[in-house]
Structure formats: structure tokens, C-alpha cells
Amino acid sequence: MNKQEIIASDHLEANNVNSSIQLGLSACLAGHKVRYNGGHTKSRLCLDVLGEYFSFNTFCPEVAAGFGTPRPTMRLIGNPESPQLVLSNDEATDLTAKLVKGFEAKLTELAHLDGYILMKNSPSCGLERVKVYQSNGHPHETRTGGLFAQALQKKYPLMPIEEEGRLNDPKLFDNFVVRVYAYHHFREEVLQEPSVHKLIEFHSRYKYLLMAHDQKQYRQLGRLLGSTKKLPLNELTDLYFKDFMQALSTPASKQNHANTLLHILGYLKESVPSAARQHIVETIHKYRLGFFPLTTPLTLLKHYLDQYGSEYIKKQRYLEPYPEDMDPNRKNYQ
Questions:
Q1: Which three-class secondary structure state does DSSP give residue 58?
Q2: Is residue 314 scored above 90 in pLDDT?
């Protein structure tokens, strides 16, 4: 492997050596000097926060295509639905095929990943809002995704994919990480040896997380599992996985979280005194109104569930969809 190939593609181990979750990562975000100007955009959020739990497979499609570092800036031109990649100072040469040739083989090697984090605004890696320029030099109002990002989404439509910059929004961070763990769990717990029993067991553990994200889709998934005798197992599994990931792609609202917490509280009706349950209800209501963060009613509820909850409710992934201390607000990475 030559030096350019090493820069284009690399593997970063998680600080937690027990992590079995691997994410793809734009190489510049890992600190590799692969940007057009020979620099990088090292992400401390990725490396210092997510890096404690995930290992990263880094890749730069532009370097893999042989464009070199440093290199002239490039941009997309033409039709936003099928743009062309060109040099910013020389639009006569179409570089689209060269870029695609640089990453098409790599795409087939990414099936083991549980998610991907991309660099924003890049004509190759930008997930959305990438400018496509008209012949008059002005960008179209319609924005698009970079060429590698679009190919990645097409190849792995269910894989959680996000731009690094958007992960600084706590809601988007939470939604992305929830989807990464869910995607990993489904592939590990169902797809390795599919069965109707495993599908139902998986659905049972994700019941309340689904309820918090999309109640309509949660009910639809329940009906789908009720039709197990009508569909071949492989078709049932594929349909469930598709609808499941689609449901989680909708960030959970305060209203849905509050309703879900109240449903879970019902499991303590016979074991926790009325006064304590009323205090939990009031805390949930204050969370719904914005006075408390979600962790306040959730921590209070988990305190009682740990003592009095059934094994079924304790196994609900809603209670801890990912490690609690993964919250970036607790990390001094900025």
C-alpha cells in the first residue's frame, strides 16, 4: 500500500477496545491532512466523544481517486439531480468518472459498518446542502449531496449516515447514536441467524423506543409481525428492518417521550406507593413543559424500576439506548 492509499483509507481503534461497533469517517475529520489545502478538519466530537465507544474506518474519496494533496478546489456544476465534478478554475474537464472510479470498489467493503460520519459541504462527502453551480457562476437554489455521499446512501439505504457538523445539535446527536446502536443490534441479534422468534424478541425490547419516535410506525410494525404466516421469513425480515430504521429516523418529541414514560410508569402501579408515582408524573409533566431535561424523569423512573420493575421492563432499550455517559454535553471537547 503506497502513502497515498494509507492517507485515503485507515482504521482507528476505539479507546474502548471492547467496542464491536465500527463507523465510517471522512478522513479529514480524523485529522488526516487530506483537504484540498493540505490541511484537515479534525473533529474532537468524533475522536474524543464517539471514539470512546466506536472504532472508525477512515476514507477520503478524493485522495483515493488520485487527486493528490494539496490540490485545486473542486465543485459540482450542471443539473443538481446529476451534477458533474470539475475544477473550480477549469470547468472544461469532467472529473466525475475519475472520482467514482476511486470510490466504487471501496463501497463494496463497507457492509460491516454500523454508520458513517461525513464532512459537510464537500462535493464528494457532503450529505446535503452541497452547492451545484450554474453556467453563470451562481449556485442553483436546489442543493444536493456529494457524489460519494449519494453513492453511499444508495448502496446502504438503511445505514445511519450523518454530517459531523450536525452532530453538535444534541437532538441530532441523540438520534444518530440511537440509530447506530439499533442498526448494530438488529444485524447482530436478528440478521446473523434470522427467525420469527428473534424478530419478535427484538421488537419487544425496542417497543418503547419505537413508541417514543413514531407511534404510528410502531403500531404498523406490530401488525407486520402479526402477519408472519403470510410472508416468507426473508421478506418479513427485510420489511421489518426497513420500517424499523425509518421509524427511528424521526427524532423523538417531548410529547412522545412523556407518553412513553407514563406508559412505563404503569409497570410500577402495584409496587410503588401512590405519592411516589404522583411525584414521577409531576416530573414528567415538567419535562414536557421544558423545565427539566429528559434525564430527570428518566433517572427517577429507573431508580424505581431497578427495585421493583419486572425483567421485561428492565430489558427495554428505551431506558438506555446507548451508554449514558456518551452524552457530549458531559464532555469538554469544545
A1: strand
A2: yes
Burial of 87 (0-12, 13-18, 19+ CB in 10 A): middle
The overall longest dimension of the chain from CA atoms, in Å, is 76
Among residues of the chain, what percentage have pLDDT more than 70?
Answer: 92
Query: What local confidence, expressed as pLDDT, does residue 15 receive?
Result: 61
Q: What is the 3-state secondary structure (H, E, C) of 252-320?
A: CCHHHHHHHHHHHHHHHCCCCCHHHHHHHHHHHHHHHCCCCCCHHHHHHHHHHHHHHCCHHHHCCHHHC
* This model's pTM is above 0.90: yes
- In this structure, how many other beta carbons lie within 10 angstroms of the beta carbon of residue 309? 20
Whole-number CA gyration radius for the chain:
23
Residue 294, amino acid: L
How many other CB atoms are there within 10 angstroms of residue 277's CB atom?
16
CB neighbour list of residue 305: distance below 8 Å, 6 or more residues apart:
264, 267, 268, 313, 314, 319
Pairing type for strands 9-12 and 55-59 reads antiparallel
Give the residue ranges of DSSP H helices in 29-107. 44, 61-64, 96-107
Distance in angstroms (rounded) separating the CA atoms of residues 162 and 237:
25
**pLDDT of 93-130, one tens digit each?**
899 999 999 999 999 999 999 999 999 999 999 999 99
Cα–Cα distance for residue pair 165/203, rounded to 1 Å: 32
Task: Tell me how far the alpha carbon of residue 48 is from its chain's centroid.
Answer: 17
Q: Which of 52, 291, 328 is nearest to 176 (CA)?
A: 328
Q: Can you tell me which residue has the cell 450536525? A: 166
Any idea of the CA torsion for 152, 80, 179, 286, to the nearest 10 degrees? 170
**Residues ≥6 apart with Cβ < 8 Å to 142:** 80, 132
Beta strands across the sheet bearing 55-59: 9-12, 55-59, 22-26, 116-118, 161-163
* 64 contacts 28 by C-beta, under 8 angstroms: no
